Amino acid sequence: MSVALYASKKFQGSSDCPKMGIVSVRFQQAAGVVLDRGEVIERTAAFVRSRLHSDSSGHDWWHVERVRGLALLLGRREGADEYITELAALLHDVSDYKFNGGDLDEGSRVSYDLLRDLGESEACARSVAEVVRNVSFTGAGSVSRMRTIEGMVVQDADRLDAMGAIGIARAFAYGAVKGEAMFDPDQAPHLHASEAEYLARDGSTINHFYEKLLLLKDRMNTESGRSFAERRHRVIEAFVHDFVAEWRLEDLPEL
Question: H helices within 53-186, ranges in order?
Answer without folding.
Answer: 61-78, 82-91, 106-117, 122-134, 149-160, 164-178
